[in-house]
Amino acid sequence: MRISRTTHNDLLSLEAAATVARSGFACIFSSSDEYERALITERRAQGRYTGRQNSWMVTALIALALAFAGVIIYWV
Can you tell me whether residue 39 is helix, strand or coil? Predict the structure, then answer.
């Protein structure tokens, strides 16, 4: 079976486009652990992992405990 010249050129063009598309998905990390480590390092450098969240959690826990104590006192 013979392939026409335009079909052959179309196939070559499609193969070249696929090669270019595959190169766009290349990853600089060799594993997910390496990616996670780099991501956490970058976020720490940006200051995202500070103690602010912990103080908010403590405040919410105290408010919950006070509400619970209020309900207990109301029912007793």
Answer: helix
Span 16-69, pLDDT tens digits: 887 777 666 667 778 889 989 999 999 999 988 776 667 788 899 999 999 999
> Which residue's structure tokens are 């600089």?
28
Nearest to 45 by CA among 37, 57, 54, 53: 37
The residue segments making up the domain with residue 35 are 5-75
DSSP 26: -
Q: Vertex 20, ends 17 and 21: CA angle to 5°?
A: 85
SS3 content of the chain, % helix, strand, coil (to 5): 75, 0, 25
User: Residue 56: CA atoms inside 13 Å, Cβ hemisphere, count?
Assistant: 4
Domain count, the chain: 1
